[in-house]
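User: WYL domain protein, Caproicibacter fermentans:
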Amino acid sequence: MKVDRLVSIIMILLDRERIGAQELADLFEVSPRTIYRDIDAINMAGIPVCSTSGVGGGFEIMQKYKMDKKVFSTADLSAILMGLSSLSGMIRGNELVNALAKVKSFIPADRAKDIELKANQIYIDLSPWMGNGNIQPYLEMIKTALQESKLLSFEYVAHHGNKTVRTVEPYQLVLKSSHWYLQGYCHKRNDFRLFRLSRMSNLQIEEFFTPRDYQKPQLDFSDIVATMQTKIKIRIHKSVMDRVLDYCADENFSPDGEEHYIVSFPFTENEYYYDILLSFGDKCECLEPYHIRAEMKRRIHDIAALYES
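Assistant: Predicted structure for WYL domain protein:
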């Protein structure tokens, strides 16, 4: 469902007394069924659109309902502009540019300066500082495949470096914890899978597919993680405190002299968390429990052996 199409339909309904579903479908080059879904979404947003059947029928905003530029508060318009601006910086396309322009047309001249100020008070930049240069073009290709119901093929690096070739029906782009993912039905696994874009290569758009019932990805693992995590005790130098704060709150730190802190650190015994501890280098020492300290020592020994040979 495109934001710019919903905004455009609202503006058309405000400008015209009545318009038919087929005329809207022809105007936006979509099916009448899509238009009916858009009208349902507009109704759910609080703008009452009614339909009239028969000759001369169509959609119209209820006559007693008046919507003008004042229907949006300063906070409403600021939030919409902030969200659309953030998306347009990462997912480029005419539809977002047009949506921004149309939302701005709702801003009364006497409130423009105040709304611009508030919209700029929070800036969301979803692009990474550095990283895989394929992310931006892959986002555009996946967006095209989503809109046109086209299969995607790509090479994918999974856990432990296993590289496979996948053919996937795309259903959703997901931004989670600053990383982009594709949720789709994988023909190799015969199931829905979540693929991280940074692990893809040789992405290609293939032939049309008939969409199946969509299964949304599970993105909230907080309850599961809470049962898996334990607290370990680490001693860190103050120079890495800013990085350790990315994983635990300030109340987990207690001073240990002038240069160090003892930290109660949330930990799960897997490769990801061992790599986190190793990333702090000689500025971090695992104090307890003993078996994790011993495993850290073994891993450090293996790293040192690489440079001795």
